[in-house]
Amino acid sequence: MSPDRQETRPLKRSRTQAAQDDLSGSQPSSKMETTLGDFERSEEFWLEDGSIILVAQQTGFRVYRALLARQSTVFSNMFSSSTPNAEEMVEGCPVVYMSESAEEVAHLLHVLLPTSQRTLFSRNFSFSFEQISAIIRLAHKYDIQDVLDQAIASLAHFFTSDFDTWERNKKQVVDVTLAQSICIVNLARLVDWPSLLPVALYQCALLGSTVLGGYKHDNASVEHLHPDDLRRVIRGRNRLAKEANEMVAEIFISDPCARCTTRASCRDALRRMLEIAVADDGCSSPEVLRSWDCGIENWGEEEGLCDACQRAAVERDTTARRHVWNKLPDIIFGLGVDGQVADIEANDVISETA
């Protein structure tokens, strides 16, 4: 990014300070005893022996103050620095108002309670995208590092920086739609995890013009890409289409392999398979990481391509896709070396309410 932008951007608060300001800024200025009429109890997280009440969107969560403090440096610092005069009391418990939605707070508490043997990323992993998205944002904001690491790992299973891992992991741990990849880009910016970006931007590029509409969350808010990332996606889609043309040529415009014993017929078969691939719009589709192996097998059998030449074509397909994969960060999306881009702050992402 140009130096001008870096000079004019205001200094960014640390995530710990930002979270503390967010919490303390919403607390009353004087101590007062209120009633439960000011908010509704959470049906799931209202512990009768709880020692603190978190309130989000008129929903109260009564939990253990010490438990939160042990797991989050933000909560720990806030609790240790607060004074009785700055606390509202309900049934003898101090109340902290949070800016997040009640659903987001509940998603985080599902992970924090209980603390023993907490394993977010496991074989029985069943979190939805909305849940994992909220967990990542809140774990980052409130500095709960072990939860953040596990939540990111659940996404990195699919949004990987390694081609061989991508090839093996056809099924996502957390189901993420193409449109939700917009949120993955923004989450990667938020937590400074650039290895998620190449695949996430690639998925966004497959959206075509619908990427402009953003992603509509369950709560009706709409999340968009930062304008700089949107430009990367639009330019990247055009570059991917160009790569697709070169890939098809590399796979199908080839002489029969050295092990071929029917060179004339296999040469004709490869030519006809090229014609099929072109007719199938394969030369212009930005979906360059999709393997041609099924087409090679099916068309090869139909056109009489020998087994050796089929295997050679599959190898060329893998080589071509690996080559494009290696170009995704820098050449396709302009992210820089190893996808390390720090010129877009997570707070710059665009959000609106429908």
TrEMBL record:
Residues 16-33 have a biased composition (Polar residues). InterPro entries: BTB/POZ_dom, SKP1/BTB/POZ_sf. Residues 1-10 have a biased composition (Basic and acidic residues). SUPFAM superfamilies: POZ domain. SMART domains: BTB. It comes from the Eukaryota. Residues 1-36 are annotated as: Disordered. Residues 50-112 form the BTB domain. This is BTB domain-containing protein.
